[in-house]
Design goal:
Layout (H helix, E strand, L loop, with lengths): L4 H14 L11 H123 L6 H102 L13 H16 L1
Helix pairs in contact: 3-4
InterPro entries: CFAP_domain-containing, DUF4200
Protein name: DUF4200 domain-containing protein
Keywords: Coiled coil
Length: 290
């Protein structure tokens, strides 16, 4: 904050202004005192000008120091920012380096595993090669046999033709075996279907026999009931015939008694009719026959 010049001069030069000697001669005139005052004022102004110039120099120096400090502060801030960025970049580089080292380590481990796998594969291939070589050595006998067969054959001139014919025959055999297998499967399926049909028909016959047995039982029961009711009906008819015969006998006896007693029958009187008596007689004879 800039200083007030008045306060500054009052602070630093107040003692000097107040200790100026007073004129000792009482008889000095007013003009002389005025000149002295002017001389003092000039001295004071010169002193003030010198002080002001010195103050300005100091202020300029202070402002320069302030600017220098501000510039240094900005430089330090920039350096701090750069250093912070350097640290961050260094941390990032370290992190990337660690990641790269970890990736390289993992890659090296994978390479080692790949090398082990390839070594195992090479070992397996070498063993396979040995097996194939042994097979080739054993197959040499067959190769000689094929050569002899070609030499003794008029149909084939090369081993390739013989092998092709053999492959064709083997394929035909496989097809025939496949057809035979399919035929056996169809036969087995039909056999199972026939067995299932026979079982179903047997179950159906058993069911029909059970139903027939049930119906026969019902028929026998119905016949027994019919015989029972027929017997009951015959008994009822026999009983009714006897009762009718008895009634006819009673009517005939009554009519005979009526005639024996000299009785007669007028048109206004109701009695036993001759036809009824005849019918009763006939029924009596039928009842006697029964």
């Amino acid at each position: 904050m800039p200083l007030d010049l008045k306060d500054y001069f009052r602070t630093f030069y107040d003692d000097q202004l107040t200790v100026l000697p007073m004129p000792i001669e009482a008889h000095v005139t007013g003009a002389t005192r005025l000149l002295e005052k002017r001389s003092e004022m000039e001295e004071v102004e010169q002193a003030l000008a010198a002080q002001k110039e010195e103050f300005q120099i100091r202020m300029e120096s202070a402002r320069q120091r302030k600017d220098n400090l501000t510039e240094k502060k900005e430089q330090q801030k920039e350096q701090l920012i750069k250093f912070d960025a350097f640290l961050k970049e260094n941390d990032s580089k370290c992190s990337r380096a660690k990641k790269k080292a970890s990736a390289d380590k993992e890659l090296a481990r994978q390479k080692e595993l790949e090398i082990e796998r390839l070594e195992q594969e090479i070992t397996s291939l070498q063993a396979r090669k040995q097996v194939l070589q042994e097979k080739v050595q054993r197959s040499g006998i067959y190769w000689e046999f094929l050569n002899k067969a070609i030499k003794g054959s008029k149909k084939f001139e090369e081993i390739r033709e013989l092998l092709g014919r053999t492959d064709t025959l083997l394929l035909t055999r496989d097809q025939l075996l496949q057809k035979d297998s399919e035929g056996q499967e169809r036969q087995e399926y039909q056999r199972l279907q026939l067995r299932r049909f026979v079982e179903e028909q047997g179950n159906l016959v058993l069911l029909r026999n059970n139903q027939l047995s049930t119906l026969q039982t019902k028929l026998d029961h119905a016949r027994m009931q019919a015989f029972k009711w027929e017997s009951t009906w015959n008994h009822i008819q026999s009983t009714a015939a006897k009762e009718t015969l008895l009634l006819g006998q009673i009517k005939v006896v009554t009519l005979n008694l009526f005639h024996m007693m000299g009785g007669f029958q007028s048109d206004s009187m109701k009695g036993v009719r001759i036809r009824e008596c005849e019918r009763c007689r006939v029924e009596e004879e039928r009842g006697a026959e029964l």
